[in-house]
Amino acid sequence: MTTAQPGSGPTVRRILLGSQLRRLREGKGITRETAGYHIRASESKISRMELGRVSFKERDVADLLTFYQVTEEGERAPLLALVREANTAGWWQNFNDVLPTWFQPYVGLEESAQLIRTYEVQFIPGLLQSEEYARAIITQGGSGLSSEVIERRVSVRINRQKLLYRANAPRLWVVVDEAALRRPIGGPKVMRAQIEHLIALAEMPNLTLQVMPFAFGGHAAEGGAFTILRFPEMDLPDVVYLEQLTSSSYLDKRDEVDRYMEVYNRLSVDSTTPAETPDLLRRIVNEL
User: Fold this and answer.
1) Which SS3 state, helix, strand or coil, does residue 211 take?
2) pTM of this prediction?
3) Maximum distance among all alpha carbons in the chain?
4) What is the pLDDT of residue 269?
């Protein structure tokens, strides 16, 4: 049995537990419908459990383990412990009132990732935003929101950035389109401070920062912004996160992920090198 790595959040624990329950069920040739009947639930609930999309009841997992003939305490105990860990609330759940439901799973995955690759075309990625820049974006995109809601959303964004400074911080690899650096969010003063913030962040050992320059012309990422998340647990596939205006998509099929990896690799080759990036950022600051 694979257990969650230190630092893994409840989202990954749910996915990991679900995948292990699925393997145990399939190993015994039991259908989801039969498993659901055994715990007084539907086939769809078993499906959601195995995908890690719902919380787990310890009694349900214990009953399933018995049904799957996992009876030795040494095998059962780690999985039942994983149930308790998977049901632990993440810090972001205190912001349920201001976070879209489709975005909350992403925060959990981001917290658990070992490597985050992201390409952004319109805005500076959230993990690298200054507080004033974040406030300007959230205010602009949240017409009609109260100041309290705006500040809570800013707080979420700033809290997300803490993962970059923790002991087991993930590696963050960012390619930003030059358009995002030149779009005057919040006015010249805010943009200048934001780009200076990027210059300082570029010194971080766990950050690789590149810019896709205008001068290059057309490039591989014609489909727009995306993020690829990789986890320390070998049982978990890479996940591609795509965000739309009112929804998001999470892709984990091997062929889909491979396609996005090809695009990201091409972007990293065609963009400024990490060593060149600060000079370009300084030139943009001087033009503001």
Assistant:
1) strand
2) 0.83
3) 68
4) 94
Query: Strand pairing of 207-212 and 171-177?
Result: parallel
Cα three-residue angle 16-18-23, rounded to 5 degrees: 95
Identify each DSSP E strand in 121-263 by its residue range. 171-177, 207-212, 226-230, 239-243, 248-251
- What is the C-alpha to C-alpha distance for residues 283 and 248, in angstroms, rounded to an integer? 35
Long-range CB contacts (within 8 A, 24+) of 194-197: 194/124, 194/129, 194/130, 194/132, 194/133, 195/281, 195/284, 195/285, 195/288, 196/285, 197/128, 197/130, 197/133
Beta bridge partners of 264: none
What's the one-letter identity of residue 223?
G
Domains and CATH numbers, the chain: 10-86 (1.10.260.40), 91-287 (3.30.870)
pLDDT tens track for 194-223: 999 999 999 999 999 999 998 776 666 677
Token readout for 103 is: 């975005």
| 32-46, 74-88, 94-108: range with highest mean pLDDT | 32-46
The continuous run of DSSP H or E covering 107 comes out as helix 104-112
Q: Two tokens at 125?
A: 């990625």
